[in-house]
Amino acid sequence: MNNASIGERLKYQRKIKGYSQEELAHRTNVTVRTIQRIEKEEVSPHLNTIKLLAVALEIEVDDLVVLTNPKDETLKKKWLLLMHATPLVGLFLPLLNVLIPLFLWIHKREDNPIYNEHGIKVINFQITALILAVLSFVSLLTIEKWGFFIFISVVPICVGIIIFNIIYVVQKNKCYYPFSIPFIRLNKNQLPTLLLLFGIIFFCSCSGPKLETLERLDGSLITKDSVTRKMNQLMEDAQIHGMAITVFNNNQPIYQKQFGYKDYLNRIPLTDSTNMYGASFSKAVFGILVMKMVEKGVIDLDTRLESYLPKKMYEYEPKTSWHDDFSTLKEDSLYHKITARMCLDHTTGFKNYRWFEEDYKLRVHSEPGTKFGYSGEGFIYLQVVLEKLTGKGLEELAQENIFKPLGMNNTAYEWKSKFENDYALGHDENGKSLKKDKDNEPRGGGTLETTTEDYTKFLTAVLSQKLISEESYNEIFSPHIKISTVKQFGEEANIFTDKYDDINFGYGLGWGYFETPYGKAVFKEGHGSGFVHHSVLFPETGKGVMIMTNFEKGNSIFKEILEVVMKDVYTPWEWENYIPYDKR
Prior knowledge:
434 Repressor (Amino-terminal Domain), 17 helices, Lambda_DNA-bd_dom_sf, CubicO group peptidase, beta-lactamase class C family, transmembrane helix, MamF_MmsF
């Protein structure tokens, strides 16, 4: 029957079924006269007539259609292959799995009934697959354990069905798409359906997960609402009443939110423009500033700092209340070996601050450059040398090189009168407000006044490698000294362990350093006057988290925040003394 005319095919199929012309006419609502004229080849039947006859005879439309040109068979296979195969593009460009076959169907459906039939089946399946993909994503976020398996199984199953039909259509000119929802039907007015279809596609394109989810280190997603709920739950359980968080994806802040109060006693809300004491967040900014000075040729990382000055450090008359007074170093035999690198990686040998000395006299306790010992005094020492070299104070240098270029208009190393209208109070372990310290002189190690909005700008610039060169960032974000102590502070800061060897734990220049399966991580914390902060960046992934709180026990939920928001289980939280609130 391959070369038979449509009349001969119709007669052949009618007789196989045992139908008379009258009975076939009754089953199709096609007149007997029309059937007679088709079988006598007196007319060329309309496409809809052929469809009706095929349905009544329980055969494919293709079994009645005559190809007048042998090349038409090859051309038909190519068009069918195109309809069935092009949805695979949707693996790389979402929605094209529906749009491409839709356009092909609209273009070809009137040329041959088989195009119309196959196009409808492909489109119905691809829309169903799109809906399944969305539902599987929802299950990933809402169903423990099984949601993950549902999510990863949808795509392979759909791709398998597509590949099966590509082979099936080439061999048999037929297709089979199970589970398809019949959005488009044969023998129906398709205008309302097409409008509904475009509406579904538009909705899917406008309601994608990117705007409402965060991607974590392992590639898993978490909704912003889930983060908000978790933050509220943790803060309530731990009785912490003021906190702000920023989460970074693709080097940009994707989630920023403030919780609780800047003044808990009076229930005054915390906002992104509220001034917050930055504590040792100061050191991260200072590290970038120093590298800027290195790039300008003002200073070198490995030149002994005292060699830049015409006099010994202890010979200079102090100009501040205390921090530039180095007179006690006259009796010290090691301080002159200190370099900028040692100040930034905490290997000067100074204690954290001189008031931790029994006699309040600054001195070096170990050979500079050999041992990690967290020290704000090292940053002050380097700051004073820079100020003498440039003739400019720390505040002026920071404004020129960092704060103004980044638009950090509410940030300074000293208290400004404009902060008076909106600033946060620190709170002790019991939630009692602490007096705000407003008379600090600028110090690179710990007097930063900022806002969550401004410090987010700073960390965004760091992730995006602005302000300084890539080479300088690589210098900062490298381990210059290994850390092998149990804790950062206290008695256990003198007890050694191999616990952190697996993460290559150490310190860079102004930033802590460790390694993860997702690349290196750099962190900086801050603590003082009732404020506790933590930031960690993963430069190779463009991800990170910043947490700022004005409650002394705020760090009791840092560990869980990092794990939930970023799947960060690598931060050395015990070394940081971030003991969870329910284990204290």
